[in-house]
Amino acid sequence: MREALNRKRNAKVTVHFSSPYFFLKGLIMLKGKLIHPQIAGALGRGGHTSRVLITDANFPHATRLGPRATLVHMNLTPGLISSTQALEAVLSAVPIEAATVMQYHTSGPYAMSQDPPIWAEFRKALDETGFKEPLQRLERFDFYDAAEGADVVLSIATGEQRLYANILLTIGVVMPK
User: Fold this and answer.
1) How far apart are CA 72 and CA 53, in angstroms?
2) C-alpha span between 67 and 65 (Å, rounded)
């Protein structure tokens, strides 16, 4: 019995970042803005041109999840976490080469006459990383189609209550120093 316990103590431990059991005491410690193990793992599996979807609380994840996407529920309560909080965490971990939003309706019950206020927050967060391209816009059903594409590696469901608070990011390239 004692010999079996000693073998177990001396065994090497393999940690998979996509595992829900990522936090093993004393083995790994993350430092930085992004510390969520599933999100970090999904971003690590992505590469240039992979996409990341961050959505508001109204987004239909059950019917619009990409076949290779990891779905991470961050919608604890209404408003928590926000789409901008999720965006800032993702931007701290990967470079972005494109950002796409869902075009708002100009008629009907959800009509708006100008860009949703959250888009200014998206632009500010992107600007702070050096990304200066304009937000691309896709009509709602085209956005849904893009969100369930095979190139989407991660979908983050937030508790964001503001309308049109969905953003689809395309991962860029880490440039050599």
Assistant:
1) 10
2) 6
